[in-house]
Amino acid sequence: MKLSREINDDGRFVRQPNRFTDRLGPPEPGRYRVYASYACPWAQRVLIVRKLLGLEDLLDVTIVDPIRDEKGWRVPGGDPEYLSELYHATDPGYTGRYTVPCVWDTQEKRIVTNDFPQITLDLETTWGTSPNLYPERLRPDIDIMNDRLYHGLNNAVYEAGFSRDQQVYEEAVARVFTTLDFLEVRLAESEFLFDTLTDSDVRLYTTLARFDAVYYGHFKCSVRRLVDYPALWAYARRLYAIPAFRETTDFDQIKRHYYITQTNINPSRIVPVGPELDWSL
């Protein structure tokens, strides 16, 4: 599936809608398996929440190869060989990109969901609540924050990187750094985005973890680096110190995926050396 189908006539990247949007049922050991990539920020969210909530025995996981080819994500040593086989087993007429994360129901033999924003919310509300990453008292504020993060940062870096028009690119970059500037002020006096660790922190972290290594250069979001924001950089390292964040962050796979897979941006497929960053506190 060509990414070019998601570039509209004015050169703007418009992410495809998620095809499978059923909600996860109650946890049943051995029933559900999430297919994820350490390279993908959307998938890492699920991996982080799975570990934070201690769901390892309830939600099985398969990590796909970070190097995606024309057939999509490969499942190392697995059955199926490619993730696309699960998409076509669920919908034989599917023509979109094969995306992670997606959750496979081993009983019904179908993809239940590839709706990455909703997967973590389902886990946080019906599978595990300790820690409570989506507390009722904060849900309206978390929803507003998540929307701002998505349009101003999480997806905006992709809009900048995949844009094919200078004005479109500059508009996306402006949103990225307006959002980072806002977050720098907010986190200057706060440990987390709210008064406790929430789903919003998970969503922000996966973009910050990739920013200097990938988005700054590869996606041309090069006004400032993460390390140029003292509060944001300290915040990112605080989260990285939490095992669920650190153990699901693989900088090697992140870099190899973006620089080798996205040949429309990096046709040489050369993976840059660096940056040398100390993520320890």
Automatic annotation (TrEMBL):
Q: Name one GO molecular function term.
A: glutathione transferase activity
Report the domain of life of the source organism.
Bacteria
Q: Spell out the InterPro entries in the cross-references.
A: Glutathione-S-Trfase_C-like, Glutathione-S-Trfase_C_sf, Glutathione_S-Trfase, Glutathione_S-Trfase_N, GST_Omega-like_C, GST_Omega/GSH, Thioredoxin-like_sf
Q: Where is the GST C-terminal domain?
A: 135-258
Q: Indicate which residues the UniProt annotation says bind glutathione.
A: 73, 97-100
Record Gene3D superfamilies = 1.20.1050.10, Glutaredoxin (3.40.30.10)
Q: Where is this site: Lowers pKa of active site Cys?
A: 215, 258
Q: Where are the membrane-spanning stretches?
A: none
Q: Name one GO cellular component term.
A: cytoplasm
Q: Which residues form the active site?
A: 40, 158
Q: What is this protein called?
A: Glutathione-dependent reductase
Give the species this sequence originates from: [Actinomadura] parvosata subsp. kistnae
Q: What is the lineage of its organism?
A: Bacteria, Bacillati, Actinomycetota, Actinomycetes, Streptosporangiales
